[in-house]
Structures are given as structure tokens and as C-alpha cells.
Design a protein that fits this description.
Number of strands: 13
Shape: globular
Radius of gyration: 20 Å
Strand order of the largest sheet: 3-2-1-4-5-6-11
Bound molecules: NADP nicotinamide-adenine-dinucleotide phosphate
Oligomer: single chain
Structural class: alpha/beta
Number of helices: 13
């Protein structure tokens, strides 16, 4: 079976591509060729790399045909962010592929109603990213149920692993938060630190895709949360991180408006807001039941790997 993976050299692809090769698939990875996977692996020698800029190819209306020309049996789309992009691809692949898997996001939910949220809860997305992803999800599910287009949507949590900065206990990407916790210095958290984050190790995301392919009958026409077994509070994650360094977390809690003033980097403040406004917490029961998804990593185990890598690569210097 020939698998075309669009965006195969990033967080997910680093783990998914070797897993696909090991499982015996013929793999074609499509990207702009600007970056390599986070970890080298011999499997990449067996992968055909096709250089293509999706944004440019979509502008000329050629992207769908270019993917179709690769003659895939299965397409894994890891970088679809607009409804029109999904439409263009589906129109070109209709009747050609046995399985089409798309990376969504837990942020299709927006404001959850009951937590851990299940896949069938009404969507209330906010922010352009979540809104577009929810539209893509609705479109793919509709096409799957209406015309038999064999789509599956997987919604990862905050993707974590060695090689990049993961979401920290303050809900942003500032490595200083890890450093302060490691040193026992004070870390301010917004509100009561009880809002939640839901990480997932990138290898578990890869597992989710493989399991969905292997359980095709139960996966087609379905959406799945692909997250760690349980979300964590900001406070709980901060306490865990501090404990790895023999520290007791020295936490200070501040109402959002006050906390916001302590953060000078606009991007970090926005990121925290996005994370606490979503306060992610999702059920994986459907993925366990239908596709046998069994995450290897808890949230703390995934973040531990990330922090270890940051120390080894001196992003975190204690
Ligand atoms: N990161 C998270 O925490 C998170 C959480 C939930 C959901 N998701 C979803 O996961 C997906 C992203 O997966 P990821 O984190 O593995 O991605 P990633 O690490 O950002 O990697 C992106 C991949 O796409 C390629 N790429 C980027 N722009 C391209 C373009 N215009 N044309 C062709 N290739 C392009 C990149 O290679 P080149 O740069 O060489 O082209 C790379 O292979 C998205 O759908 C996102 O919504 C992510």
C-alpha cells in the first residue's frame, strides 16, 4: 500500500514515517524540503521525498491533482488549516484512495461542556484556527457519510516530545518557566492554576494514525481525540516539574489581568490565554474502543522527555 503523507517531516511525521515504513507501507513524504525530521532514522532511506509547496500549489489549483498523480492508496494530511484546502484535496482524491486521514486539533471543541469532553459534544470553536479545523472536520465527516469518502479525523492535544519546546505549566512556550521551577524560584500562574492542559507525546499521535489505518472498518467516517490518558492542571504540572529537580513548586496565583501584566512577551501571554481559555480535557475512550489507541505516555512522561531534551541541548540551563 502506498501512503502519501503531506507534511511528513514535523512533530508527527518524525514518529509516523518510521512507523509506516516498519509496518511495510511504501511511503511518500511531501513537504517544501525546508526541514528534516527531529530525529534521524534509517527508515527515511526508504522514503520517497517529494518537494512541493502546498500554499503555492493551492493558489494555482494544482495541489489536489499533484497529490493524486502520486497514486496513493492512503493519504495522511497533516497540514490542512482551511476548509478550501480540504475541499480541493477531497475533490481530486474522491474514488481514488482507500483511506484519507486528517490531523485536526482538540481546539475544534472551543468551550467544552462536560469534561473530559467526548467527540460527540456540540462544537463551540473560537479563534480562526479552531473554527477552520471544525469546518474541515464537519466537511470530512459529511463527505464520508454522504458520499462514502473514506475519511478519518484525528485530534491531537499539545504535541510534546524531544526536539522542541512543549507547552509549559504556565500554558505557553517560555523555557524560563521550566528553569524557575527547576531552581525553586517563584512562578506566577494565572487565576488558581486550576485550568487544564492536555498534552500528547508525538509518538502516541503517530500510534493513533497507524491504529486508525489498521482498524479501517471502525475508523472511516469517525473522529478521535488523540491525547494522553488525562489532562493536568497548570498547578499540578508545575508541581510535577519542580519535583523532578527536588524542589517544591514555589507558586503564586494572580487574577488573569494582574498575571497578564507580569508577562512582557506578547506571544507568551496570548499562548497562555489560548490554552486556559480552552482548558483542554478530553476523553480517549472512543479511540481506545474503536481503534485500540493505547497511549504509552502520560502527560508528565511526555513533558519529562521534552524537558530532558531541553536540558541536554542547553535551552534550559540550571
Ligand atoms: N503542534 C501541536 O501541538 C498540535 C496540536 C494539535 C494539532 N496539531 C495539528 O497537527 C498538524 C501539524 O503536525 P506537526 O505538528 O507534525 O507539524 P509541524 O511540526 O509543524 O510540521 C509541518 C510539516 O509540514 C511541512 N510543511 C509546512 N508548510 C508546508 C507547505 N506550505 N507545503 C508543504 N509542506 C509544508 C513541513 O516541512 P517543510 O517546512 O520542509 O515544508 C513539515 O514536514 C496540524 O494539522 C496541526 O493543526 C498540532
Amino acid at each position: 500500500m502506498r501512503v502519501v503523507i503531506i507534511g511528513g517531516s514535523g512533530h508527527i511525521g518524525t514518529y509516523l514515517v518510521p512507523r509506516l515504513v516498519e509496518a511495510g507501507y511504501e511511503v511518500i513524504s511531501v513537504s517544501r524540503g525546508q526541514r528534516d525530521a527531529y530525529q534521524s532514522h534509517g527508515a527515511w532511506n526508504l522514503v520517497q521525498k517529494v518537494v512541493m509547496d502546498r500554499t503555492e500549489a493551492e493558489k494555482s489549483g494544482d495541489f489536489g491533482r499533484m497529490i493524486s498523480d502520486l497514486k496513493p492508496d492512503i493519504v495522511i494530511d497533516l497540514i490542512c488549516f482551511k476548509l478550501d484546502s480540504a475541499r480541493q484535496l477531497v475533490q481530486s482524491l474522491r474514488g481514488q484512495v482507500q483511506h484519507f486521514l486528517s490531523a485536526g486539533t482538540i481546539w475544534v471543541h472551543g468551550h467544552a461542556i462536560q469534561v473530559p469532553a467526548t467527540e460527540d459534544q456540540a462544537r463551540q470553536p473560537f479563534g480562526e484556527y479552531g473554527i477552520q479545523k471544525a469546518k474541515i472536520e464537519a466537511y470530512l465527516l459529511y463527505e464520508s457519510r454522504r458520499s462514502g469518502f473514506p475519511a478519518t479525523i484525528l485530534h491531537p492535544g499539545h504535541i510534546t516530545g524531544p526536539g522542541w519546546i512543549c507547552v509549559n505549566p504556565a500554558g505557553n512556550f517560555d523555557p524560563q518557566v521550566f528553569i524557575k521551577l527547576a531552581k525553586g524560584e517563584e512562578v506566577a500562574l494565572p487565576n488558581l492554576g486550576m485550568e487544564t492542559l492536555h498534552h500528547v507525546h508525538a509518538d502516541d499521535v503517530a500510534q493513533g494514525f497507524i491504529k486508525a489505518m489498521l482498524n479501517w472498518r471502525h475508523a472511516v467516517g469517525e473522529n478521535f481525540h488523540i491525547v494522553s490518558p488525562a489532562a493536568m492542571t497548570l498547578r499540578g504540572l508545575a508541581e510535577s516539574v519542580a519535583s523532578w529537580f527536588g524542589q517544591t513548586a514555589n507558586l503564586r496565583f494572580m487574577p488573569w489581568d494582574e498575571w497578564r501584566k507580569t508577562v512582557t512577551d506578547e506571544q507568551y501571554a496570548r499562548s497562555t490565554w489560548d490554552h486556559i481559555a480552552h482548558s483542554d480535557s478530553y476523553s480517549i475512550e472512543k479511540a481506545r474502543r474503536l481503534i485500540d489507541y493505547q497511549p504509552r505516555y502520560t502527560t508528565t512522561e511526555a513533558v519529562y522527555e521534552c524537558v530532558n531534551w531541553l536540558i541536554e541541548h542547553q535551552v534550559i540551563v540550571i
